[in-house]
Amino acid sequence: MTSPSDMSLSLPLDRDSLLALACDRAQLSDFGDLWFLEPMDQFIAASNREGRLTPDGRASTTEVIVKGLVSRLRMVEDIRRHPEIRDEKVEVAGIILGLPRTGSTIFQRLLASAPGMTGLRWYEAQNIAPFPGEQPGNPVERRAYAQAMIDGWLQLAPELASIHPLEPDAPDEEILVLGQMFVSTMIEGMNFVPSFTRWLNGYDQSRGHEDLKTILQYLQWQDPSRRGAKWILKSPSNLPYTEVAAKAFPDALLIMTHRDPLQTVPSYVSMQAALYKLSATLTDREVGEFWFPRLVEWMRLFEGARERIGEHRFIDIDYREVGKNPMAQAERVLSRVGITVDERLEAVLTEFLAGNKREQRPMHDYSPERFGLDEEAIKREFATYRERYIL
Questions:
Q1: How are beta strands 230-234 and 117-118 bridged, if at all?
Q2: pLDDT band per the 50, 70, 90 thresholds, residue 365
Q3: What is the pLDDT of residues 12-34, one digit of tens each?
Q4: Comparing C-alpha atoms, which of 96, 94, 109, 95 is closest to residue 326?
């Protein structure tokens, strides 16, 4: 994992310099369609203007950008050499959405563990393209890169171990890939860029999802054992931008996970405080002042989108019911996407659950007051949602 020079850490982020760093690392120059430059420029401008990046934060942001660009260069080159990649038949059967901290991570991993299902792995999301010299089916270097990232995060913010289970081979969010194209809520989740989030609300993100389709083909081509399997995607970005994902994958079931915002809002704000600690200098209250209204906005955007899309595309999963009987909730979804529920499936799901209990990780301790959050304000802003799905 390379790092920028000490001198570059004192300079503003610069698009041409970042593109040049990527080309130098990959020894390639064709990025394919350059649609991503517009959101890239918006993100860079917001980061330089308001990101409050520390030197380590500037270095890590630079690395995230460069490795994403390098992956794009390598993928474009691989497709040039192997045009059959675009012939891969990828079926996205389900897309999990919902407020963050609604149990969506463990639920995605549970569904992806079922025979006939698959998901985007965390190490793949960090580097979609094989490293030079990587043996097919043995991505040792990419796994090591992902593990080094996890180790570095936990050193700077140990509380992340209790908030989100980080494992190189575990299924995770396509937001990590879309964010490397400068769309999706990964940008605001990792960097403090309020003006970028306002811009993103009005930007057509469909080009990112078109590239995501190609990336899923690329990953399936790398691992032929996935052929014929159904993909399960998951991202908090799917809540405010539901229609983008729904239109990109028109046959996918939209799986909405639910939990009381009285728990999810402070939990997610706590997570964001830990993530911002990796790159920027913000107080806990500043994090709360940005993220509480932003989560309210996410829900408002979703409510309108769900009405336009239609109820036939959705299935609702209650966090409390998953806690009581996760098998039954998983089987509800799997039967809707065409996976046969039999003894073999139940055995696999049971084995997964035995190795992924919440008590196997540290407890996540969060307090609303720490972030300036008010319980009555949460109840008021999420009243319609709570009435429909929680109460």
A1: parallel
A2: low
A3: 899 999 999 999 999 999 999 99
A4: 109
pLDDT value of residue 285: 94
Q: What are phi and psi of 88, to 5 degrees?
A: -60, 135
**Which residues fall within 8 angstroms of residue 252, CB to CB, at 6 or more apart?**
92, 93, 94, 95, 233, 245, 246
Q: How far apart are CA 227 and CA 229, in angstroms?
A: 5
Burial class (CB in 10 A: 0-12, 13-18, 19+), 126: buried
| 68 within 8 A of 181, measured Cβ to Cβ | yes
Is residue 196 within 8 Å of 42, Cβ to Cβ? Answer: yes
- pLDDT confidence bin for 357, thresholds 50/70/90: low
CA dihedral 224, 227, 230, 235 (to 10 degrees): 40
C-alpha distances out from residue 367 to 90, 98, 249, 336, Å = 42, 22, 38, 38
Sheet with 314-318: strands ordered across: 117-118, 230-234, 91-98, 253-258, 314-318
224-244 burial string, b = 16+ CB within 10 Å, else e? Answer: eebeebbbbbbbbbbbbbbbb
Which range is least confidently modeled, 14-23, 150-159, 348-357, 379-388?
348-357
Contacts of 116 (CB under 8 A, 6+ apart): 228, 229, 230, 339
H or E segment and range at residue 64: helix 55-81
170 CB-side CA count, 13 A: 18
257 pLDDT band (50/70/90 cuts)? very high
- For residue 254, the cross-strand partners are 95, 314
Residue with structure tokens 């989740």?
A: 189
pLDDT at 361: 41
- The amino acid occupying position 85 is I
pLDDT given for residue 356 in this prediction:
65
Tell me the C-alpha to C-alpha distance, in Å, between residue 129 and each of 89, 148, 220.
19, 18, 12
